[in-house]
Amino acid sequence: MISKCFEVNVLTLFPEMFPGPLSYSLAGKAIDKKIWSLKTINIREYASDKHRTVDDEPYGGGPGMVMRPDVLGKAFDANKPNNKWKKIILTPRGKPLTQKIVKDISSKPGVLIVCGRYEGIDERFIASRSLDEISIGDYVLSGGEPAALILIDAIVRLLSGTMGSSDSLIEESFENNLLEHPHYTRPYKWEGMKPPEVLLSGNHAEIEKWRKNIALEDTQKRRPELLISEKK
């Protein structure tokens, strides 16, 4: 049985960027099945002047423009989320996005995501609306929209009814702070390479043991900090 539709509201200057790639594959099928819904709010519609200005020069000087708190505040308040929703703004300085955070968001009735642009967003808006700051990585994008698409995709995958098998979620990367084990399929021999023989043995206990061991080895080699964070 599919649970109540998970709601996603996005405050953005470019609503035409949504749903974009989320119209396809798992997310697209899930939105058609009403597992989740999407509402985009154009921040510019809440500007009060005839030019629909949403930004201004930063106090203290410096390059770029800053998004105004009054315009953002009006947009947010006119689309105020349920108290149980997550309220998120995507910023480079935010807490790094992890699977644990995604799981927490997906357990709520919905999420409101604010997409910044220009040099940044007036700090007073972020503080006054108690937004959680999240970053998808240590790099800078032209705006929050691409990051929002990534975040939404990660959330939708975890919603009941989206994935065909719950086992796929259990064995994925970052579950239990481990990377996922390698995968192999036909043909048996390709460019001189063969899959590990244990995968063809039919011994499920040995296969499971190999997968756990190789996942641990790969994590130690590629992402050792995941194991350190688990110990903490």
Task: Walk me through this protein's architecture.
This protein is of the alpha/beta class. It folds into two domains: 6-158, Alpha/beta knot, CATH 3.40.1280; 171-231, Trp Operon Repressor, Chain A (Orthogonal Bundle), CATH 1.10.1270. It contains eight helices and eight strands. Helix 3 crosses helix 5 and helix 7 packs across helix 8 (224-231). The chain is elongated. It starts with 5 loop residues before the first strand and ends with a helix. The model has no long low-confidence stretch (mean pLDDT 93).
Summarize the structure.
This protein has 8 helices and 8 strands. The protein has helices at residues 25-32, 69-78, 99-106, 123-128, 144-158, 166-170, 204-222, 224-231; strands at 6-12, 36-42, 55-56, 66-67, 86-96, 110-115, 120-121, 132-135. A 5-stranded parallel sheet has the order 2-1-6-5-8. A 3-stranded mixed sheet has the order 3-4-7.
What is the strand and helix layout of this fold?
Elements lengths: L5 E7 L12 H8 L3 E7 L12 E2 L9 E2 L1 H10 L7 E11 L2 H8 L3 E6 L4 E2 L1 H6 L3 E4 L8 H15 L7 H5 L33 H19 L1 H8 L1
Parallel strand pairs: 1-2, 1-6, 4-7, 5-6, 5-8
Antiparallel strand pairs: 3-4
Helix pairs in contact: 3-5, 7-8
Separation of the first and last Cα atoms: 37 Å
- Name the CATH superfamily assignment of the largest domain: SPOUT methyltransferase, trefoil knot domain
Strand numbers in spatial order across the main sheet: 2-1-6-5-8
Label the overall shape.
elongated
CATH topology category name of the largest domain: Alpha/beta knot
Major sheet, described briefly?
5 strands, parallel
Name the average pLDDT. 93
Number of domains: 2
The share of residues in helices is: 25-40%
CATH level-1 class of the largest domain: Alpha Beta
Number of strands: 8
Give the second-level CATH assignment, the architecture of the largest domain: 3-Layer(aba) Sandwich
Order of helices and strands: EHEEEHEHEEHEHHHH
Radius of gyration: 22 Å
Structural class: alpha/beta
Counting H and I runs of at least 4 residues, what is the number of helices?
8
Q: Stretches where pLDDT falls below 50 for ≥5 residues? A: none
In percent, how much strand structure appears in the residues?
Answer: 15-25%
